[in-house]
Amino acid sequence: MIKMVKMTEKGFTLLEAVIGIGIMALVVVAIATATTTLLLNHGQAAEQNTVLPQVQNAGHWISRDVQTARNITAGDPNGFPLSLSVPIDMDENNDYSVNYTFNGTRLKRKVYDSSQTLVSETLIADYIDTDNTTFNTLNATINLYQLTVRAVKDKGGLTRIYEISQRIGTGAEE
């Protein structure tokens, strides 16, 4: 007596293998796309994190000095070099002079005493876009100014606009 044994083959058919490979390809493409997006966004975020403090420093220091300045002299055509006369007492002859100038993409703050001796020189910001960083008078009657600061590093850039009022002063000179 011969017994017939049904053999079950184990494995995948060609159709099952093709479908499996297709699904695996979709998963790999999705992972690659997500990874690429993450890496690109991280680079842009890093550039933004670099230029943000530069813009904030420039806005802080210039705003602070303009608010306390007795006189303001802005250069042409974009307002830089910017010169400020900052009082240290009631006598205008004792005023300090604060100058903001560009050295390449760097914004520097130089302070001179009443005898025009350099007291300090500070790097305020780097990566400054000098063509798009401006200081303008909005209203000379009420001593209102607008500072636009733009910093750019590689593909990441940031612009901030500050409106600044003098707290003291005899008027604007431009």
Describe it.
The chain has one domain. The protein contains one helix and eight strands; from the N terminus they run αββββββββ. The protein has one helix at 14-68, and strands at residues 71-75, 79-86, 96-103, 106-112, 118-125, 134-139, 144-153, 156-165. It is rod-shaped.
Are there runs of 5+ residues with pLDDT below 50, and where? none
| End-to-end Cα distance | 117 Å
Overall shape: it is rod-shaped
| Count of domains | 1
User: How would you state the average pLDDT, rounded?
Assistant: 88
* Content of β-strand: 35-45%
Could you tell me the radius of gyration in angstroms? 31 Å
In quaternary terms, these chains amount to single chain
| Number of helices, counting only DSSP H or I runs of 4 residues or more | 1
Based on helices, strands and strand pairing, what is the structural class? alpha+beta
Strand numbers in spatial order across the main sheet: 1-2-3-4-5
- Main beta sheet: 5 strands, antiparallel
What is the helix fraction of residues, given as a range?
25-40%
Number of strands: 8
Element-level helix/strand string: HEEEEEEEE
Task: Pick out its properties.
single chain; about 170 residues; alpha+beta; five-stranded antiparallel β-sheet; three-stranded antiparallel β-sheet; 8 strands
